[in-house]
Automatic annotation (TrEMBL):
Record GO biological process: D-xylose metabolic process
Recorded family membership: Belongs to the xylose isomerase family.
Protein name: Xylose isomerase
InterPro entries: Xyl_isomerase-like_sf, Xylose_isom_bac, Xylose_isomerase
Known partners and oligomeric status: Homotetramer.
Active site: 101, 104
Listed GO MF terms: magnesium ion binding; xylose isomerase activity
Broadest EC class assigned to this enzyme: isomerase
Cofactor binding notes: Binds 2 magnesium ions per subunit.
Species of provenance: Thalassovita autumnalis
Residues reported in the UniProt entry to bind Mg(2+) 2: 268, 271, 307, 309
Keywords assigned: Carbohydrate metabolism, Cytoplasm, Isomerase, Magnesium, Metal-binding, Xylose metabolism
Length: 435
């Protein structure tokens, strides 16, 4: 039975680049083949349950602006109504995946036993809905940052009882994700950091975080969960400093605690910006080290100092991201999750559909541009030309040599190199040919 929330909105179809219909895809054609694979299978779109359905329209300076039929989100009847609306939207958009935190799908009960009961009840209900929908679960996760119990962290909390509550919460969410056939499990440590070093034992907190993640991996294998375990970097906000600062920091952390073969990264564009990076940089860092799992595709307002989680609309940025993803072989269990929310003035149900339509189109345009650049080979040729000197035997031998031998060669051959152009503007112009 329809909830009537999306009444009057038809299923979104592909109409081509000339369409002026704001509720139609202009570039995203799920069946279009790009580099030998269907576009839907490349992009693996997922709707974020939290921003699309749980978020009430607040910002750091103001409260709720969205008035939804399932507000307040404090009982199971409204939780089930929210699930009904979610699956209506999944079907309208024809998306293959969705994602959730436990706090998105069930009301907070104030204690673990009741949280567990309501989580099991709502995920059973969601499982029934999945039986008649094409939309599957890309990943589940635990919200261990919103409730006041998490104010000093979860696995890094100085109170061992909070660590225990966190462990039980993650177990319950892994069980629910496994039950629903989720393809990944994500951990984002929003409070896993500090507000001040005056009251923080950083070494102990990092060790506890590493031990906690090892427990997660052990439990994954115990229950036979075949999906990937992913961690999501973010430098700050809500904490002043978070231990999962960026991709490079997380990779170092995983190697320190022996997890580099068990855990990969879920990267977000907005978090990259907060860390002072581009999304392209974070993806390239992860793919270079074989650590990319999945992505949260959104953008930040460059004039704001917080994570604004806007829907993507910059084709060149998106194209360069998918360029590195395609070069690395593409997603396996991961995908493109829209960790993005409406502006708090965008009140209507139609705004929610239109935002996803635009974002999916931008990603499709970026994917096609990335594939065209790879097939053309211009960037690869430019890299090959720039590093061509390292293909010579004398250069390869130098890496196995020592400082004294290299110095003797510089003197004997009178090596005095002249700088060579990096041709950055030419390459930027090249990218713009495809977007």
């Amino acid at each position: 039975m329809s909830t009537q929330f999306f009444d009057g909105i038809a299923p979104v179809k592909y109409e081509g680049a000339d369409s002026t219909n704001p509720m139609a895809f202009r570039h995203y054609n799920p069946d279009e083949v790009v580099m030998g694979k269907r576009m839907e299978d490349h992009l693996r779109f997922a709707v974020a349950y939290w921003h699309s359905f749980a978020w009430e329209g607040g910002d750091p300076f103001g409260g709720q602006t969205f008035i939804r039929p399932w507000h307040p989100q404090d009982d199971m009847d409204r939780a089930k109504m929210k699930a009904d609306v979610a699956f209506e939207m999944f079907d309208l958009l024809n998306v293959p995946f969705f994602c959730w935190h436990d706090a998105d799908v069930r009301p907070e009960q104030g204690n673990f036993a009741d949280n567990l009961a309501t989580l099991n009840e709502i995920t059973d209900y969601i499982g029934e809905k999945m039986q008649s929908s094409k939309t599957k679960l890309l990943w589940g996760t635990a919200n261990m940052f919103s409730h006041r119990r998490w104010m000093s962290g979860a696995s890094t909390n100085p109170d061992p009882d909070v660590f225990a509550f966190a462990a039980a919460t993650v177990k319950s969410c892994m069980d629910a994700t496994h039950k629903l056939g989720g393809e990944n499990y994500v951990l984002w440590g929003g409070r896993e950091g500090y507000e001040t070093l005056l009251n923080t034992d950083m070494g102990q907190e990092l060790d506890h975080m590493g031990r906690f993640l090892n427990m997660v991996v052990d439990y994954k294998h115990k229950i036979g969960f075949k999906g990937a375990i992913l961690v999501e970097p973010k430098p700050q906000e809500p904490s002043k400093h978070q231990y999962d600062f960026d991709a490079a920091t997380c990779i170092g952390f995983l190697r320190k605690y022996g997890l580099e073969n068990e855990v990969k990264l879920n990267l977000e564009q907005g978090h990259a910006i907060l860390a002072g990076h581009s999304f392209e940089h974070e993806i390239a860092t992860a793919t270079t080290e074989g650590m990319l799992g999945s992505i949260d595709m959104n953008r930040n307002d460059y004039q704001s100092g917080w994570d604004t989680d806007q829907f993507p609309n910059n084709t060149p940025e998106v194209a360069l991201c998918y360029y590195h993803i395609l070069k690395s072989g593409g997603f396996t269990s991961g995908g493109t999750n829209f960790d993005a929310k409406l502006r708090r003035q965008s009140l209507d149900a139609g705004d929610l559909i239109a935002a996803h339509v635009g974002a999916m189109d931008i990603c499709a345009r970026g994917l096609k541009a990335a594939a065209a650049m790879i097939e053309d080979g211009g960037l690869e040729q430019a890299l090959s030309d720039r590093y061509a000197g390292w293909q010579k035997d004398v250069s390869k031998n130098m890496l196995a040599s020592d400082l004294e031998s290299i110095t003797n060669r510089v003197l004997s051959e009178n090596i005095n190199p002249e700088p060579r152009s990096g041709r950055q503007e030419i390459l930027e112009n090249y990218v713009n040919r495809f977007v």
